[in-house]
Structures are given as structure tokens and as C-alpha cells.
Amino acid sequence: MRRGLSLRPVPAPVQIPSRRRIEITLGRPGAALRPGRFFAWLLSLWHQAGMRLRVVTWNVNSVRLRLEHIARFVAEHSPDVLCLQEIKCQAHEFPREAFEAMGLPHIAITGQKGWHGVATASRLPLTEGTDWAPCREGHARAVSVMVEGIEIQNFYVPAGGDIPDPAVNPKFAHKLDFLACLAERSRAARARPLVVVGDLNVAPGEFDVWSHRQMLKIVSHTPVEIEAMAALREAGDFTDLVRAARPDPEKLFSWWSYRAADFRASNRGLRLDHIWITPPLRNAALAGGGAQARIHDDVREWERPSDHAPVSADLIL
User: Fold this and answer.
1) Closest alpha carbon to 122 in 144, 140, 141, 103
2) Cα separation of the two ends of the chain
3) What domains are defined for the chain?
């Protein structure tokens, strides 16, 4: 077990909700199911049969501070695997009992005192995945797990500071090095069933920012970062599931600054949080006739929220 990673199985006995007995009520005899209702029922059936895997990524900006929000979101949306960034705690400080109560008893944590930190919590048993070791500074920014034969890499990419010049800004150089490392690892892993998730801290497309022209000089959407993300996507032959579900030119954001009194009114957002899959998972991601992925921007309206919204995607295994 590598230093900083905590992966502790829950003590038996445990009942996994996604393995519960199926009970179906279709309504009165002879009643017709409209296509939308039928599809919703079918997705529910797949989930109860253990065939749906809902993966969520969320930069919570302190797991202990956002615990009530996390519990509410889990109750409303039933993720099977919840990938968190910026947990801001060490492994022994992580609120395990609260996650067990939510039905997410299997937890992998890479923690750090006061800063950064990532965790993956699951309804289903986890095993430790391949450590990509992308952070040259040794920060707690990556955790890898295996779930149902699928590798899930959860990352918190460095923000990169304010000056988009690696020659004068070590934080920006660190960010580019991190992304380059992810590209190298992804190229070697592209033939495997792999999900890459997290706060990647780059808005990669013209319609992933509130103003493409104005953001080109701002860290998170500079040309060099856009190129680094394109290289990463090509290296793994990744499908961006949110964009597969909601193509350009629709503007999509997952982050809004706290500085705006009303984030909806200003809507100066960025799409920094991503769920990407390799080719072996494309059929699983598109099994319902198209990608089932979305940004839960309503969570940003909750009281004392994170500045990031959760992002979810479903795989039908």
C-alpha cells in the first residue's frame, strides 16, 4: 500500500443496495407506458439488477464542511461511485461513518493535512488500482481504484497560479507537467476499460467558458492548456461523456466563482470537471441510445455550496 492512500474494506456483514431484490410495479392493467416513462423504468430496472454504474465527480471544497450536501446529493441521485476532490483532510480525519450511513462503505483516500486530497467512495467493493503518480510535488491529488473490472482514476489537477508562463510561474509549470504525465499514462492504458474523472482545472473548449475571447489569457483556458488537454484526450482516445450528451455549441459550466453575488445572473462559469472514458467503455456509456451524463448545476444553488457542481455519468455494464 503506497504512502498516503487508505483503502479499508468495510467489516462484514454488509448489504450492497444495488444487489437488492427487484420489485416492479407497472401500474393498472392495460395502462400504456409512454416512451419517457418506459425508459426511466428501464434504467431503474438496470440499476436494481446491478447493471448500471453511476459515476459522479465532485470538487467539494472540504468534505467535512460539505457533508450534509453530499448526503443530500447521494440520497437524491444514488451514485454507485462518488469521486471527490479537495477533501482537505488526512485519511484518518475522513468522515467514514457518514459515508457508510449513506450506503457508500467502500472508500479509497489519498489525504493531506489541510490541502488538496482526493477520495473515491463506492457502494460496490473496491480494490486498489494502478498508481499513475502524476504529481511531482508529492501532493495528494490522485487516487485509483478498480470497480467491477473498471479502472477509475480520480484526479485533482493543480490550478496553476495566475501567470500562464511556466518559465516564471512554477505552479503553472507543475500543472503542465501533471497533464503531460496523465497523457503518457493514458496512452499506455487506452486499451483498458478506464474512466478518468476529476477537477482537471482546464476548460478545454470554446463553449466550456463564458467568454472564449476573454478567457484565452486567463489560466484554465489558455492556448497551452487547451493543447495539453487535447493531447491528453488523444492519448487515451477518450470520449468526453458530458459533451457526448450535450454537444457544442451549448455552453456548459461546472464551476462559478464565489465572487459573484448571483452566479446564475452573471453566469461567468467554466467547465473544469470531467468524466472521460476509453474505447472499451463506449458501448457501456452509449447503451441507452446516447450518453447519460449531466452537470448538476442546481447543487450550486444550495446554502454554503462548493464553487463546483457535481458531474455524473451512467455506464450500463
Assistant:
1) 103
2) 29
3) 48-316 (3.60.10.10)
Residue 146 vs residues 78, 108, 142, 158, 309: alpha-carbon distances, Å: 19, 10, 14, 24, 25
- Closest-CA residue to 309 (of 124, 69, 146, 114): 69
Give the C-alpha separation, 121 to 56, whole Å. 10
Report the relative pairing of strands 255-256 and 106-110 from DSSP bridges: unpaired
20-42 per-position pLDDT tens digit: 222 222 333 344 445 445 545 55
Which residue type occupies 306?
S
Q: How does pLDDT run across 56-82, given as a tens digit for each residue?
A: 999 999 999 999 999 999 999 999 999
CB 107 within 8 A of CB 116: no
| 3-state DSSP of 176-224 | HHHHHHHHHHHHHHCCCCEEEEEECCCCCCHHHECCHHHHCCCCCCCHH
Q: Cell digits for 283? A: 458501448
Give the contacts of 178 (CB within 8 A, at least 6 positions apart).
Answer: 134, 135, 136, 141, 157, 158
Strands (E), 205-272: 239-240, 255-256, 269-270
